[in-house]
Design goal:
This protein is an alpha/beta fold. It has one domain (about 25-95, about 100-150): 3-Layer(aba) Sandwich (Rossmann fold). About 45% of the residues lie in helices and about 20% in strands. The protein has helices at about 20-35, 65-85, 100-110, 125-135, 135-145, and strands at about 10-15, 35-45, 95-100, 115-120, 150. β2 (about 35-45), α2 and β3 (about 95-100) form a beta-alpha-beta unit.
Length: about 160
């Protein structure tokens, strides 16, 4: 019997945490074994509060929102470069840097670009911490139309 399900495009959602690196390591290894193309996605959230006060007497304008967004964009590019170097040297990797709610953007991208699987790490928060911050991995798995592989932390 032929299996109609093929995993030819894998989306790995990452941030700059050890949990994302664990997920990326696993995701790249899995993609190589099944012959899938890999894409990385990082979601920048709009900063809620930024220092716009500064000190004009000292010539410090403070950090304004466009500067924060530029810094986040550069950090995401460095994150992707580091992950490509560690896990996918020489491989063709698509990259997406988006702005918005993490779980919503990951799910939307996976649907729009027809990814076969999403791979995401989890911080494994428990109790009150989980109640306050929720779980992005849990939200992605609830709303995605494709399979989601959640890589637990190794702590």
């Amino acid at each position: 019997m032929e299996n109609p399900i093929t995993f030819n495009r894998v989306l790995i959602a990452v941030d700059d945490s050890k949990y994302a690196y664990q997920a990326a390591s696993y995701g790249f290894a899995l993609a190589q074994k099944i012959g899938a193309k890999v894409a990385l996605v990082h979601i920048n959230q709009v900063p809620i509060a930024t220092n716009v006060t500064g000190d004009p007497i000292l010539g410090d304008p403070g950090i304004i929102l466009p500067n924060m967004m530029d810094i986040q964009q550069e950090n995401a590019k460095h994150l992707f470069a580091d992950m490509r170097e560690k896990y996918a040297a020489g491989a063709d990797v698509d990259e997406y840097i988006l702005i918005g709610d993490v779980s919503t953007e990951v799910v939307s991208l996976a649907k729009e670009q027809n990814f076969s699987m999403i791979i995401i790490g989890t911080h494994s928060r428990k109790g009150f911490d989980h109640f306050i911050s929720g779980s992005i991995a849990e939200s992605v798995s609830r709303h995605a139309k494709c399979p989601v592989l959640i890589i637990p932390s190794k702590d």
